[in-house]
């Protein structure tokens, strides 16, 4: 039971349309149900609720896939969401797989290129520079065991090595999802919202890979509104979205977008509607800053176009 009601009894017309779309897509694919990775975040929780609404809870499987850097807090919240929705949940920790694939070793080597005295007990995250509409500079922030923090610029080679290593986390999770999907005859349902899908904030062959993407046309604010309408636990709507990748807590705007997510919603919507920069004064950005943001949107779309591209089939 969610919010005192059975799954599928709340949410309104939008939830109905999305749930029906999921059911139709799964049916058209010739699959029997849906499997998804459930982190306890708002996107995956709303997706799980919509799958349960459209397919019935008995035909939805949630996978909880914690790993060493993130800990069990999100998995515990995900388990609560699954129980509230009445859907099956399987716990599939991925730490051992990542260890065997060299994820942590390669990550540590990349960090030592910037902080030679780094040890795995340190916590870390990657932080982007303020938006300029041009080149983005990334820095590595570490926290030593005594609590002292330091930030240094990431050279391009170290940045690529670090991101390549940590992208294994998303790819291993997707491997687990498709393994369960094959076992059950289910479709894999993705959880990316419009900001992530449009701006390329996903890993190719990782969280960007799915058979059905029900939230890919919804702004982040719309996803939060759905979470409330569907009666999801308050912790789901209250939690700040994170990357779920690095051991230091990290927001999506400091790693990728450069703007708070409510502002990104407005920017994407206004940009695509052709709204003048002066129309976004309520965001706290002046017209020059909005123009910078518009350039950032266009630049990310161009830079990540290949993430959306299918494989190139060569005609002999």
Features:
three-stranded antiparallel β-sheet, globular, disordered N terminus, 316 residues, 48% helix, single chain
Secondary structure topology:
Layout: H1 12-28, E1 34-37, H2 42-55, E2 60-64, H3 73-85, E3 88-91, H4 95-101, H5 103-112, E4 123-128, E5 138-143, E6 149-153, H6 156-184, E7 187-188, H7 194-199, H8 220-229, H9 234-238, H10 252-257, H11 261-273, H12 287-303, H13 305-308
Parallel strand pairs: 1-2, 1-7, 2-3
Antiparallel strand pairs: 4-5, 5-6
Helix pairs in contact: 1-2, 2-3, 2-8, 5-6
Fraction in helix: 40-55%
N→C terminal distance:
57 Å
Name the overall outline. Answer: globular
How many DSSP H or I helices? 13
Q: What about the largest sheet? A: 4 strands, parallel
Low-confidence stretches: 1-8
Describe this structure in words.
Helix 2 packs parallel to helix 3 (73-85). The longest helix has 29 residues, at 156-184. This protein has a four-stranded parallel beta sheet, with helices on both faces. The chain has a three-stranded antiparallel beta sheet with strand order 4-5-6. It has 13 helices and seven strands. It is of the alpha/beta class. It is globular, with a radius of gyration of 20 Å. The model is unreliable at 1-8 (pLDDT under 50). The chain has helices at residues 12-28, 42-55, 73-85, 95-101, 103-112, 156-184, 194-199, 220-229, 234-238, 252-257, 261-273, 287-303, 305-308, and strands at residues 34-37, 60-64, 88-91, 123-128, 138-143, 149-153, 187-188.
